[in-house]
Amino acid sequence: MGNLNCFFNPEHIAVVGASRSSEKVGFSILHNLIACGFKGKIYPINPREEEILGLKCYQDIGEIGSSIDLAIVSVPEKHTLKVAKSCGEAGVKGIIVITAGFKEVGGEGARKEEELIDLCRRYHMRMLGPNCVGIIDTHTPVNASFSKGFPKKGNISFISQSGAMLVSIIDWSTYSDLGFSRFISLGNKADLDEIDFIESCTEDPNTNTILVYIEDVADGDRFIRVCSEASKKKPIIVLKSGISAAGAQAASSHTGALAGSNRAYDTAFHQCGAIRVENMDELFDLAKAFATQPLPGGNRVAIVTNAGGPAIVATDAIEERGLAMARFEQDTIAAFREHLPAESNIHNPVDILGDAKHTRYRYALEKVLADKNTDSALVLLTPTAVAEPEETAWAIIDTSRQFPTKPVFAVYMGGGTLKKGRDILTRAAIPTFTFPEPSVRTLEGMIYYSGIKSSIRQEPEYKLDDIDSSQVKSILARALKDNRTALLGHEAARVLNAYGIPSTRVHLATSAEEAGEISDEMGYPVVLKISSPEILHKSDVGGVKINLENRAQVETAYAGVMEEVKSHLPEASIYGIEVSNMAAEGIELIIGLTRDVQFGPLIVFGLGGIYVNLFEDVSFRLASSLTTRKVIEEMISETKAGTLLKGFRGNKPGDMEALMETIARVARLSLDFDNIVEMDINPVRVHVRGVTALDVKITIGGDTGN
Ligand code: COA
Q1: How far is CA 631 from CA 366, 488, 619, 646, in A?
Q2: Is 478 left (phi over 0), alpha (psi -120 to 50) or beta?
């Protein structure tokens, strides 16, 4: 998308619906533009006025004569389309439609929004809104919004789908110490959306951290593509509320049931390096940390404290969140032994005791930061009678400046007596907390980002040039033509084979005699499974017999299976019985796929068998990310199945290479065929050498093409 200069660096701005009445939105917008110190030209438009706030007023935008970069529209809904059209005719580059009453009210409003979009397209005009608060850039400066107040200048951009959230944060920012570069209220996202603004803020030299509050992502693929690039340059911290529509969809497979509502968002954010937070506190703690501190080089944290209890709480949080306590060099420990009181704890956490003055803090912090095994430090202070919160604050500030590559956070645990110290720290850009846990959580976010930054979007490593997609296409076309919603077992096995995924050989028999012939040809032992499009969970209705050793057993079992299934489901249409060979021993896993409305195919991996949903030992990734060994290895290692595969308690390890390639192949299959709606390969057996898909269910839908 083109740059959004007309919104952030406009020279000529028109305010359509500017008003003299100070209680009106059109007044606030004009007032805000003037008050923020905007240096370009402002044109109020109001057919009833000659002049507003000292500026000449125009009847219509077409009268102005100069080319207008940005028009802010604050007229009632019934006039908006007409105004937008006159903006288009006047060659306006961008419009901000403040007016409400469009898609958010449904019906006629939604239809009018479509008309508004058409107008923008016709006149090549970009639009923010409708139903929004506007935008602010503190560096330009431009305040094209009806916010109350103007935020402090800084380097954080905040993009929000909720106007209310945005105005609250603007107000809050006026007495917090955080500075902002941009505020963007997305409104209905009829034209420009969060992705356009993430892209624009990534290019903005005045923004170093991007905060996003969203309720949905309309274009999952584009979101991932843009954020993958953006997050390599700047942290993107996302607070996503609301439940994804994917969660509401009925799921017939194990995978679908496991996926749940928020998994796709979690995996998508992880895949593109965006940091997902749970609440506003986390959002701004992280924003503060990214805006003021360097990225940690690793996960080893040192603690300096004047009290044992809080240090234990911090240590627990560090371990729970998968960070590590730094283990100091011998020199550091020797220095502590010599210079700190004998009762001190000289290992991490370094407890310099309740009588510690600022000099002791300075000494200890300097030593731990100088130690090559420390990546970041937390300084804890509790208000003992002899503590020196303010002097200690200066000691922390000076020392942290000596080590500009290592983040330092302060935890001042207490209230009134620590306020001055806390203010000194905050003003000097040291993130300061009241309790240890949020400080560790923030550090974890920074460490997560520095780790993920290096691993986003690598070149695909699995070439997979042996796949036969035309075969899959014809199997799916036939099944869809028969109005079926699931493939039969032997068809599903052929789909896997066409994508290079080994499965047990499967042949359909329509009589006991034919089953016997197939078994003789295949070799014993064999398995029989009922073949019916209406039966997904075959063993539940007596539709499976395993380990059949000879022809007589096969023929008897054939009759037995038919009888039992018919007694359970007399109406089911039965195509016959599938004969397949028994696979070698191995670890039984599940590889499955489901689809998310926004982000497309989602792959699950984990411990297989009938207890999949009970144990939920699974991990998820979007199929589009499963192209490199690193991502697939990480996915496997998140599960206990990953530990089993390494050879647990004397068992032989499973063939990791073959398994990883199988996951890459399933991902590719899901990306190639939209009409494979869900799939469970459960179990897929991983042998010492190779893998075999033992059972596969493929649910289909949509049209017959791919
Ligand atoms: N061109 C220029 N000015 C026009 C006009 C036109 N075609 N039509 C009307 N105006 C003028 C009006 O005369 C009025 O000026 P005045 O005060 O001098 O009479 C001004 O525009 C505003 O019109 P008014 O009818 O007074 O509307 P309003 O200010 O009460 O409401 C909105 C306008 C846009 C604020 C209102 O319709 C709205 O949508 N409110 C909700 C906004 C919102 O919540 N957005 C989302 C935030 S999350």
Answers
A1: 38, 32, 12, 18
A2: alpha
* 337 alpha-carbon distance from chain centroid: 46
**d(CA 78, ligand 1 centre) in Å:** 10
Please give the number of the atom of ligand 1 that sits closest to the Cα of 17.
Answer: 21
pLDDT in tens, 525-546: 999 999 998 887 788 899 999 9
- For residue 185, which atom of ligand 1 is closest to its CA? 48
Per-residue tokens: 156: 């954080």
Rounded CA separation 275/212 (Å): 10
How many Å lie between the centroid of ligand 1 and the Cα of residue 131?
12
Q: Ligand 1 pocket: which of 20, 29, 45, 46 to mutate (most atoms <8 Å of CB)?
A: 46
Compute the distance from residue 14 Cα to the ligand 1 centre, in Å. Answer: 14
pLDDT of residue 247: 40
Residue 99 Cα to ligand 1 midpoint, Å, equals 7
Residue linked to tokens 């497309």: 600
Q: Please name the residue ranges forming H helices in 428-550.
A: 436-453, 469-481, 489-498, 512-522
Q: How far is CA 370 from the centre of its chain?
A: 36
Residue whose CB lies within 8 A of the most ligand 1 atoms, among 75, 102, 133, for a mutation test: 75
The answer to whether residues 534 and 559 touch, using CB atoms and an 8 Å cutoff, is no
Alpha carbon 679 to chain centroid, angstroms: 23
Sheet with strand 70-73: strands edge to edge: 41-45, 12-16, 70-73, 94-97, 126-128
For residue 162, the ligand 1 atom closest to its alpha carbon is 48
CA dist 117 and 436 (Å) reads 49
Rounded to whole angstroms, the Cα distance separating 329 from 277 reads: 35
User: Coil, helix or strand for 357?
Assistant: coil
Contact in structure between 197 and 186 (CB atoms under 8 Å): yes
User: Tell me: the pLDDT tens digits for 167-216?
Assistant: 988 888 877 778 999 999 999 999 999 999 999 999 999 999 999 999 88
Q: Alpha-carbon distance 395 to 364, whole Å?
A: 10
pTM to 2 decimals? 0.86
* Burial class of residue 54 in the structure, from the number of CB atoms within 10 Å of its CB (0-12 exposed, 13-18 middle, 19+ buried): exposed
Q: List pocket residues of ligand 1, CB cut-off 6 Å.
A: 16-17, 19-21, 24-26, 45-49, 74-77, 79, 83, 98-101, 131-133, 163
Phi-psi sector, 411: left (phi>0), alpha (psi -120 to 50), beta: beta
Cβ atoms of 196 and 175 within 8 Å: the answer is: no
